[in-house]
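ok so I'm stuck.
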Amino acid sequence: MTETTLPETRGRLTPGRLLSDLTWLRAGGPADWLFQPADAEDLAQFLAALPAETPVFPMGVGSNLIVRDGGIRGVVIRLGRGFNGIAVEGRRVTAGAAALDSHVARKAAEAGVDLTFLRTIPGSIGGAVRLNAGCYGTYVADRFVEARAVTRQGELRRLSAEDLNFRYRETDLPEGCVITEVVFEGPEEAPETLEARMTDQLARRDATQPTKLRTAGSTFRNPAGYSSTGRADDTHDLKAWKLIDDAGMRGATRGAAQMSEMHSNFLVNTGGATAAELEGLGEEVRKRVFQSSGLQLDWEVMRVGEPAPEDDDPANG
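replied:
not stuck anymore, here's the structure
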């Protein structure tokens, strides 16, 4: 791809941008181009003029992502300033897609609106909607009103819950569609009560998860027991971490990649791990769990891009 094939923009276009320092796992290769739009109109005009055959990958803050060592072909879109505002009116909270989940929870709590489930979820609002993120029994689907987005064709759209079809860690967000803003509605409660709840949630998280290390949050989805809306089904209690433990993979390593000793469903870069090591260890965990339990773990961490030419297939490594 050459610079002349790309549309003019008021935002920032960077060729060959290394993505490792934009992901929480600090691994991965370059994007052909990184595009940081100035605003939604700039994004829409860029996508409308971008050749249809050029791949597009919307990227949040990289909290739930492995970028393979060969990088990403096409244009990676990353929203920044201009897409991180938070406004509260009554029980409704409007947040830019680049706003951090934790910031939205805190701002809402200050206004007496309960979005506390977002407080301990890593990442930004756009990604939270795309994956129907949830915690403590509440999911994005439970508080979602609508989203505003730009399609791959450059059209501005409003997306309803029906459009997105929320499921456990899944939605039907169209390929190449970029969420720009989200409206939530939460129950009202005293700000001090909400603040105390979030403080307790943070304490519990920090006591059980390796929050100070380079991770991407939960690596694998719990294998079963969730309704179509993404809410837990109490008739099942299968936990990925327990299956990993039973397969003897707590603390397992591959190069500088490790399954956390503290919480075995967290994949950790202990220092200098390649994306191939991280993904390869994850695939080994999936293989061992299947051998041990007959159950298939599905990745919760998104893996994108191409392996480096010299990399082996992680599934065979």
